Amino acid sequence: MTNQRENSIQIDKDEFRKIGYELIDTISDFFDDISEKPVTTSKSPKELQKTLGNLSLPANGLPAEQLLSKASKLLFDNSLFNGHPKFFGFITSSAAPIGALADLLAASVNANVGGQILSPMATEIEKQTIKWLAEFIGVSPNYGGILVSGGNMANFTAFLAARTAKAPKDIKKDGLSNSSKMLISYCSKATHTWIDKAAILFGHGSNSIRWIPTDAANKMNIELLEQTIKEDVKQGHQPFMVVGTAGDVSTGVVDNLEAIASTCKMHDLWFHIDGAYGIPAAVIPELKDLFAGIKEADSIALDPHKWLYSALEAGCTLVKNPQYLIDTYSSHPEYYNFSLTEEGGSLNYFEYGLQNSRGFRALKVWLALQQIGSNGYVKLIKEDIALSKYFYQLAEKQPELEPITQNLSIATFRFIPEDFEEIGEKREKYLNTLNEELVNAVQNGGELFLSNAIVENKYCLRTCIVNFRTTKKDIEDSIEIIVKEGRKLNNVMQVI
Ligand SMILES: *Cc1c(COP(=O)(O)O)cnc(C)c1O
């Protein structure tokens, strides 16, 4: 290349290739022996700071090669690997390796997917990705939508569209404070905390949420939902949306979506589904009934970075009538000479969501969808569910483990010491403390990683499998480790 400015930002072609190949070599080694590493090193922030070094920002630049090799070492030696075959915590998947390459490519092109004019092909790829996601989970491909950073943002994006659709029209001008009626949203008490954040941040206040109790199967109690809506209307409030959860974060339960849909129809409410974790399982033929009603949803949140194996970050909002997104998010400053969305088939994603400049997160989702294919996903998701059932069955067989719940790919269970004869309140209190300590000990041990759930006041160990590297052997080994650790802790705690 001729006519270059002299600067410290440029990396010349030969050097870029050399550093790039070295980095790819390091990354392929990492993927290859990820199962040999501890899931996490459990170093304290203090120890990590020491490893990182208290350096000041260099005044003069350093060589890229040296920086990348140092960064690789820091990360590969001091991270928690959710790609590890024995990672079962929270809901973070093992990411499809193609995502790493996709992000490299996306950052190289650096498309700004806020406006079609700035990202001609990237915008088309995102549109196709959205269409595929809708088709994949089994709703009409005419749903429109947008990729966002994750489940929280996907739910927020839908929450605001619901408000536009159902609240008095002057809210956009006058804000909520001028509205005499309180806008109420409804959800089961197992709903993820995003709804709290949304109600608080968007000016509704946490008192505007009705946490509907669950029935014996841990699904939203529809009778109580109906009653509460009627009561609110009587009090002069304005119900506007109901949230059904498709795979709750603690135990994987799917609400009765069909019943919620018909309640929403009856009362003219927006029907939103939080399917951040679970909705990809709608693709499994045997689970069709469980997800009946999803076609009725006005909006759906799903997280490709969970059960679709995208690298972080990738969430998605789907909306049955995408005009509500435009009505919510579009504004046209004089300094944007863009064609409006839909003019000549163009789509400016800044008119579909909260972000203005946007990265090309669609690429990794689009590539993984094709590399794996819909049959590939059906197989992966089915296997994850089967492995979770296996976890549950092994807990059932093991006398010191009490199985508690198993839904989708989440199993919960707890450790009960052999010959444990305590009864009543004292028993539950001891078991809760013991199992809480056990979760911490297992996490710190680094051999496997799981998280916790509280089910009917029982403190449980919780494993969620969204992990294409996990095998039956990993689960058998994990059960052994858990029991061994449980016995050890119990011995120590009994002495105290
Ligand atoms: C994970 C999850 C969220 C939050 O998603 P993030 O991607 O962590 O922002 C919301 N709802 C449900 C049901 C989830 O499982």
Automatic annotation (TrEMBL):
Cross-referenced InterPro entries: Aromatic_deC, PyrdxlP-dep_de-COase, PyrdxlP-dep_Trfase, PyrdxlP-dep_Trfase_major, PyrdxlP-dep_Trfase_small
Any one Gene Ontology molecular-function term assigned to this protein's record: carboxy-lyase activity
Cofactor(s) this protein requires: pyridoxal 5'-phosphate
Family annotation (Pfam families): Pyridoxal_deC (PF00282)
Residue numbers carrying N6-(pyridoxal phosphate)lysine: 306
Alphabetic keyword roster: Aminotransferase, Decarboxylase, Lyase, Pyridoxal phosphate, Transferase
Superkingdom classification of source: Bacteria
GO biological process per UniProt: amino acid metabolic process; carboxylic acid metabolic process
Cross-referenced PANTHER family: GROUP II PYRIDOXAL-5-PHOSPHATE DECARBOXYLASE, MIP05841P
Similarity annotation: Belongs to the group II decarboxylase family.
Protein name: Aminotransferase class V-fold PLP-dependent enzyme
Source species: Aureibaculum algae
Lineage, opening ranks: Bacteria, Pseudomonadati, Bacteroidota, Flavobacteriia, Flavobacteriales
